[in-house]
Amino acid sequence: MVLLSGSILAGATVALIVALVVIGAEQKKGARLFLTTVRGWIDQRLEGFARWVRQALHIVAISAMYLVHQVRAGLARAIAPQPRRRQKPPERLQFEHTDNHLSSMHDHKSDTALSNAQKKKLRHQKLEERL
């Protein structure tokens, strides 16, 4: 059992050293030297996956901002004082209930109003004066 673990450790160490040497040589030269097509294909797939992850994170961030905004607005509506609802409108006009100058003028007008016959007679008199 110990022999198997040791051999796995030794193999992994050798593979790491080889990979580091190859990567160092590639960086010196500025081009890939080992498995260029396979590594290019893998790079394309990883770039596409990274683009997809960036878009997903952007969507999640916008959704989180929207959710925070909705919660904040809901709390503001819950905490803010509610406007008073108007009471039921009175059945009569307001000035009929008060004792002020306008109501006394209205009462006087209704008390001194001319009858229909008086209005007709006055209209005829005014017309005769014009002619």
Question: Could you describe the 3D structure shown?
Answer:
By secondary structure, this protein is mainly α. It has a domain of 42 residues. The protein is built from four helices and no strands. The chain is rod-shaped, with a radius of gyration of 48 Å. 0% of the residues are buried. The model has no long low-confidence stretch (mean pLDDT 87).
In short:
The protein has 131 residues and is mainly α.
The profile of the biggest β sheet is: none
C-alpha Rg (nearest Å): 48 Å
Number of strands: 0
Tell me, briefly, the overall form.
rod-shaped
Mean pLDDT: 87
Counting helices, strands and paired strands, the structural category is: mainly alpha
Strand content: under 5%
Tell me the number of helical segments per DSSP (H or I, 4 or more residues long).
4
What sequence of helices (H) and strands (E) makes up the elements? HHHH
Low-confidence region ranges: none
User: Helicity level, as a percent range?
Assistant: over 70%
Distance between the termini: 136 Å
